[in-house]
Amino acid sequence: MAQRISQHMKKILLPILSIIALATASAQPVKIHGHLKVQGTRLLDEHNQPVALHGMSLGWSCFHPRFYTAGTVDWLYRDWNCSVLRAAMGVEPKGGYIDDPTRSKELVTSVVEAAIKDGIYVIIDWHSHHINLEQAKSFFAEMAAKYGKHPNIIYELYNEPAGPTWPEVKAYSEAVIKVIRKIDPDNLILVGCPRWDQEIEQPAADPIKGYSNLMYTMHFYAGTHKKWLRDRTDSAISAGLPVFISESAGMEASGNGPIDYKEWQLYIDWINKNNLSWITWSVSDKNETCSVLQPSAGSDGHWKDADLKESGARTREYLKAYPPVDKPQPTATAETVREPATAETLRQPATAETLRAPALTKNSYHPPTDHK
Asked: Does residue 250 contact residue 260 with C-beta atoms inside 8 Å?
């Protein structure tokens, strides 16, 4: 009798245990979400569920190539809880794509292939401030042919347009999109906008038509860009523009200066309220506030607390506060990342000065320094 009861219990328990094991097993983000698509202003996964990606941008490939490794990719995924990484391939500087295309593509390839292996999303970023149309078309045609079949891939056509007008950026983007779409019909494409990705209202008024799965990039540095940029982005989204924050950080737009923790928290709360994707700059060890690593950090991850700069430690906290990216989870909200000192408790009383958007001068935006 006892033996029959034991066998009966096994028949009942084994399916239950199998279901529990499947529910708790780790899964790669791309296996969970699959191909990404844009519907209205929202980013959806292949199951038509809203999704927001969170992760890190590597520094300029030509300046910080030692972090373009499989080890760095794997560590950022597993220890920093990144669902997306950005390979920022330098274009104009010495050692960049124009100077050394072979080496530049090797660095990007090492990151892309490691991301595909780990099952996370990866942005192939044409990290430039100027228009180089023919080179961009050639590069993205090659990348699309090589990796377009993988749902991991996101193309960023133009990191931060500095001088070109929106009609010029739009024409450039349409030409590059045409090349990509001949090869890869559906992976996500990110389009930049003028003045270091702060004039997001311009594509909102005149978006690219005739192509699907496009989003437009906004960049912020909390020490420089205040509420006016959030308000401007809110207006663009309200007008129907899908927005992706492909670069951001907590200090001044120069990449240096003190971290504005209060304003940074306001941005994080706003990001989560709107379920936006966001990426922090940058995985590098330069002597500047925005580089998240100390020179002691190894090239293959496994970083200790002492290897992280102030920005790195805080960014890692923000990323790890989200539910684990390797498990299916409800969409993260502001409550999942908010610290005890919330945006509400940190907010200064509103005044005419704090509510007024600054004059649109060069210093209001992102200065074209070497680190960017």
From this structure: yes
Q: Distance (Å, rounded) from C-alpha 260 to C-alpha 220?
A: 12
- The pLDDT assigned to 7 comes to 54
Mind telling me the catalytic residues?
A: 160, 247
For β-strands 42-44 and 37-39, DSSP reports them as antiparallel
Q: How many residues does the chain have?
A: 372
What region does 336 belong to: left with phi over 0, alpha with psi -120 to 50, or beta? Answer: alpha
H/E element, 181: helix 166-183
CATH topology of domain 31-364: TIM Barrel (3.20.20)
Return the pLDDT at 25. Answer: 42
Task: Return the SS3 of 243.
Answer: strand
Q: Residue 26 has what pLDDT? A: 63
How many CA atoms are closer than 13 Å to the CA of 366, on its beta-carbon side? 27
Query: For residues 60 and 103, is the Cβ–Cβ distance under 8 A?
Result: no
3-state SS string for 104-159: HHHHHHHHHHHHHHHCCEEEEEEECCCCCHHHHHHHHHHHHHHHCCCCCEEEECCC
Omega cis (within 30) before 212: no
The confidence score (pLDDT) of residue 356 equals 29
Residue with tokens 């999942």: 336
What's the CA gap between 275 and 278, in Å, rounded? 9
**Nearest Cα to 155, choosing from 221, 104, 217, 210?**
217
CA dihedral 148, 151, 152, 153 (to 10 degrees): 30
- Structure confidence by residue, pLDDT tens digits, 109-132: 999 999 999 999 999 999 999 999
Helix, strand or coil, per DSSP, at residue 142? helix
User: Helix, strand, or coil here: 343?
Assistant: helix
Q: State pTM to two decimals.
A: 0.84
The pLDDT score that the predictor gives to residue 326 is 87
CA 202, CA 243: separation in Å to the nearest integer?
13
Tell me, rounded to whole angstroms, the distance of Cα 172 from its chain centroid.
22
Q: What is the pLDDT of residue 328?
A: 79
33: tokens are: 């979400």
Domains of the chain, residue spans? 31-364
Residues of the chain with pLDDT under 50: 1-2, 4-5, 8-10, 12-25, 331-372
- Burial of 228 from C-beta contacts in 10 A (0-12 / 13-18 / 19+): middle
